[in-house]
Amino acid sequence: MPQRRRLDRAPALVPETVKIKGPLGIIAGRGSLPCVLAEAASARGLPFHIVGIRGEAEDEIERFPHTWVKWGEVGKTFHTLDQNGCGDIVIIGGVNRPDFSNFRLDTGALKTLPFILSLSKGGDDHILSRVVRFFEQKGYRVHGARDVAPELLAKEGVLGSNTPSAEDEDDIELALRVIDALGRLDVGQAAVVIKGYVIAVEAAEGTDAMLTRCAELRETGRTGRRGRAGVLVKAPKSGQEERVDLPTIGPDTVAKSAAAGLAGIAVAAGGVLIVERDATIAAADREGLFLLGVTLAEHEGA
Amino acid sequence: MPQRRRLDRAPALVPETVKIKGPLGIIAGRGSLPCVLAEAASARGLPFHIVGIRGEAEDEIERFPHTWVKWGEVGKTFHTLDQNGCGDIVIIGGVNRPDFSNFRLDTGALKTLPFILSLSKGGDDHILSRVVRFFEQKGYRVHGARDVAPELLAKEGVLGSNTPSAEDEDDIELALRVIDALGRLDVGQAAVVIKGYVIAVEAAEGTDAMLTRCAELRETGRTGRRGRAGVLVKAPKSGQEERVDLPTIGPDTVAKSAAAGLAGIAVAAGGVLIVERDATIAAADREGLFLLGVTLAEHEGA
Fold first, then answer.
1. What is the crossing angle of helices A251-259 and A277-287, to 10°?
2. Which residues contact A299 (CB under 8 A, 6 or more apart)?
3. How far away is chain B from the Cα of A152, in angstroms, using its nearest Cα?
4. Among the four given CATH numbers 2.60.200.30, 3.60.40.10, 3.40.50.20, 3.40.50.720, the one describing domain A24-150
5. Among the listed ranges A33-37, B72-76, B116-120, B288-292, which one has the minimum average pLDDT value?
6. Does A151-294 carry CATH code 3.40.140.80?
7. Which of A95, B28, B70, B248 could pair with B57 as two cysteines, CB 3.0-4.6 Å apart?
8. CB contact A199 to B (< 8 Å)
9. What is the bridge-based pairing of β-strands B231-234 and B197-201?
10. Does B302 touch chain A (CB under 8 A)?
11. Number of cross-chain residue pairs from A and B with Cβ atoms under 8 Å apart
12. Cα–Cα distance measured from residue B182 to residue B137, given in angstroms and rounded to the nearest whole number
């Protein structure tokens, strides 16, 4: 059943095979993804060095070769990358908007101040595209997490032992339409739909906060209280800078979806990262949720 | 500056002048709107009777002629309306999805069970349109709040003493595009945009909860912390059943927008109700927020 044709949208999510030669620079923001990626690089024997953004990256990165930089220490970032021979880089994990009260302007930053100031405006994708272009202009090759660790990408089809009902399929379809409509405006990568009713749309708050809200709506009776119903759907925005900001799920996403009473989770196959894949599928099976990789059809015009 | 052309969208929000003859039945859900409407009806000498949905309507309605019904007491609702001569009705204030564990099925309800069960599926507008059609089929004339009290509708232009900046205007434009894109999928009537970044999109949680979330995002540095920036925009969904569910703002909306650090609020002129208009404008002036009624251009095709 995941074979049916989904929304028209770009792009076909097939990872290109990229040959990453040298040591990999991992520029690390929030969350567990930087360490997940570091482990994947370790596993395949790829040398790497993590540049952790202070106040964003988790202390966990200290398990690996790393250097801390502050927001705005652009010169130190380049210096660290160059000293470690990192011509290839991955930028991974969310970052807050630049907070100019907590900003360390080093020599590199002063030279690039117009660029940095430009980061205080616009949607995520707009900003991330600029960051990628900025590093590329300096001669770095910017890769996505999926180039380094394609095994993290969601595969097509039913990923656990539960399958979606016809009603769930309808909810998935509607959620994909919501994500598609908003993605064109550089908003959101996730939505929750229960029985044809769009309960929540993700913007800046992130998926966890959105799911907590859904659980509260259920508690207060704003959505039905009985039985599992509805879906969380995550998919990349149409035209998204996928090297930087692929949507992600993990065991915690399953736990929060279960708490919100949802019947399952659908993600764009090849377009969403699953952190701790086995644990995520096990959690879905344990909670009775389906986990589905759906294929988005290719874009065929506006 | 509010004169510039906004998004193409339907419909032109010009209230028709409706002659409401008899006593008005006010079917009351959540919030202060039912009482605001009752006061407006009183002020113009229009007799009315409130049918309060138990668990939804505020106790405040007891200040006026009223009858309480439980969710599902369809027969009692008709009986109350008929006994009070209410051929004209207004349905006002949000209601939760029918909760069948807290349901009182009376004789009227049993006859209309398929209709009631149909209310557990679909988006708000989908459901509200069915409710309106249901009452119309029974011979009632269903009006909107704006037919009874057009003075509650937001007017065009700057409503207080503060005016939006060019940057605010851009944020308003983007928020309107978000609401427009989602409205076509029967989602949301509100969004918050700060400097080109869509911070929050309203779905089932309501505007107050969305604004509280924006204040939290500001606290945690996910959005800029300094100075007022950004807008709350509310507008009816494209093609919305406007007789039932017009978006609403009031003094509390202003307080919550101020707490979220926003620069102002824009609403669709003629398409959004302002509860306690004078207090709302005074609150905006006091907090330094602009309050703007924007005109949505007429729809001219897909």
1. 20
2. A8, A9, A10, A11, A238
3. 27
4. 3.40.50.20
5. B116-120
6. yes
7. B28
8. yes
9. unpaired
10. no
11. 126
12. 30
- Cβ(A210)–Cβ(A225) under 8 Å? no
**CA angle B211-B187-A231, nearest 5°?**
95
Tokens describing residue B255: 């307080």
Please name the residues in contact with A162: beta carbons below 8 A apart, sequence gap of 6 or more: A264, A284, A285, A288, A289, A290, A291
* Complex ipTM value: 0.80
Q: Please state, in angstroms and rounded to a whole number, the distance separating the CA atoms of residues A234 and A271.
A: 9
- Residues on chain B touching A124 (C-beta within 8 angstroms): 197
What confidence category does residue B75 fall into, taking pLDDT thresholds of 50, 70 and 90? Answer: confident
- The one-letter amino acid code at B136 reads E
Q: What are the extents of the domains in chain B? A: 24-150, 151-298
Q: b/e for A110-121, b at 16 or more Cβ within 10 A?
A: eebeeebeebbb
Q: How many CA atoms lie within 13 A of A149 on its CB side?
A: 28
pTM beyond 0.90, yes or no: no
d(CA A124, CA B198): 9
CA separation for the pair B96, B194 (Å, rounded): 31
Which of A182, A195, A222 comes nearest B121 by C-beta?
A195
Architecture of domain B151-298: 3-Layer(aba) Sandwich (3.40)
> What value does the mean pLDDT take over residues B91-100?
69
Question: What 8-state DSSP symbol labels residue A93?
Answer: S
Distance CA A33, CA A49 (A): 15
Q: Give every CB contact of residue B100 below 8 A, 6+ residues apart in sequence.
A: A226, B120
3-state class (DSSP) for residue B290: strand
Q: Where are the alpha helices (DSSP H) in chain A?
A: 33-43, 74-83, 107-111, 113-118, 124-137, 145-148, 166-183, 207-219, 251-259, 277-287
Q: What is the pLDDT of residues B187-229, one digit of tens each?
A: 878 999 999 999 999 998 999 999 999 999 988 876 666 678 9
Judged by a CB distance cut-off of 8 A, whether residue A30 touches chain B is no
pLDDT digits (tens, 9 = 90+) for A72-122: 788 899 999 999 999 999 988 876 666 555 556 676 666 666 666 667 677
Answer whether A200 touches B (CB < 8 Å): yes
Chain A: closest CA distance from residue B292 (Å)? 22
Q: How confident is the model at residue B102 (pLDDT cuts 50, 70, 90)?
A: low
Name the DSSP class of A101: G
Burial of A209 (0-12, 13-18, 19+ CB in 10 A): middle
